[in-house]
Amino acid sequence: MSVVIPTHGRPDLLRETLATILDQDYAGPMEVLVVHDGEPADQDLEALSCPGRLVRTTTNLRTRGLCGARNTGVLASRGDLVASCDDDDLWHPTKVRKQVQRLEEDPSLVVVGTGIRLLMGSQADVEWVATQGVVTHERLLHNRVKELHSSNLMMRRSAFDLAGLYDEQLPHGYGEDYDWLLRASLVGRVGVVQETLADIRKDVPSWFRDRWLNTATALEYLLDKHPDFGSHRRGHARILGQIAYARAAAGERRVAARLAGRALRRHPAVPYAWLALAVAGPGTDHQRLLTMARRFGRGLS
Question: What is the domain range of residue 280?
Fold first, then answer.
């Protein structure tokens, strides 16, 4: 199996990530392909290779950004199974073995995620336990499904033939894994190992943090690209509410209020629209609201 890690400017975090991947108790051979995006390849990382664990480095040869880097890695990798991981997240030792076992037991699955734990730094960690073993396309429209995260997905190589590569036209690469999952869930089944097997760092800066207009344009692109949101009232309202929140956080309060109103007309219980209206009001700290929402199982994505 292969692991693809896109990276840019985080060498220390990357090495911590690599250590948890190389420490997997999976008995089969693994290659780990580190794809440097907009920076020279660090070939010193290849010295971390050990028996059954080959570390390779390369540079993004396609569109600059996450999607191009992921695609570079997928196309250069050689495993029948391809796992993805961000350059700052951590795997539990049994993750690969349990995901491979799940895929072997159910040939209808094209991709498998796991439960995750959000590392919140000075605050208590948040755990997203996988409540269902199979995630339908309908559920993905309704909910982003946090246990299907870019740092814990394992995919059959054939899934890319059916669903396509990551969309390099997606603005700023935001939500690239969600877009791919929406497509994959139409060509095969999406599964989850119902154990927490990956730690997702929320205690280090994200490339998307405070780049609200980037987030808004990417979500608008996804809404246009996937017209089936239009027939799913709650899912459509969720995306509209997220766009409204991002626009509000960027200071576009009137636009945000209009979008929030559209979202609430589609589904009045959608929380993102209410958060957007709160942020659009005076004296509200949008980052504090987002942190509180994440602790209650909500986030912008």
Answer: 212-295
Which contiguous run of DSSP H or E holds residue 192? strand 189-201
Q: Are 22 and 50 in contact (CB under 8 A)?
A: yes
**Whole-angstrom distance, CA of residue 7 vs CA of residue 87:** 6
Task: Pick the last residue of a domain from 169, 201, 233.
Answer: 201
Residue 230 domain flag: yes
Q: Is the pTM of this model over 0.70?
A: yes
**Total domain count, the chain:** 2
245 and 183 co-located in one domain:
no
- Tell the residue number behind the tokens 């250069």, with chain if given: 76
pLDDT tens-place string over residues 126-136: 998 888 999 99
How distant, in Å, are the alpha carbons of 28, 112, 142, 272, 274 from that of 91? 17, 14, 27, 30, 35
CA distances (Å), 115 to each of 69, 82, 153, 191, 197, in order? Answer: 25, 18, 11, 11, 6
Q: What is the CATH number of the domain that holds 19?
A: 3.90.550.10
- Tell me, yes or no, whether 52 lies in a domain: yes
Q: How far is CA 60 from CA 38, 227, 264, in A?
A: 7, 31, 41
Give 258's strand partners: none
Are 126 and 197 contained in the same domain? yes
Sign of the alpha-carbon dihedral angle for 121, 112, 160, 186: negative
Which amino acid appears at position 60 of this protein? N
Residue where a domain stops, chosen among 178, 201, 224: 201
- Residue 161 is predicted with a pLDDT of 96
As beta bridge partners, residue 196 has 115
Q: What is the pLDDT of residue 287?
A: 56
Residues of the chain with pLDDT under 50: 294-298, 300-301
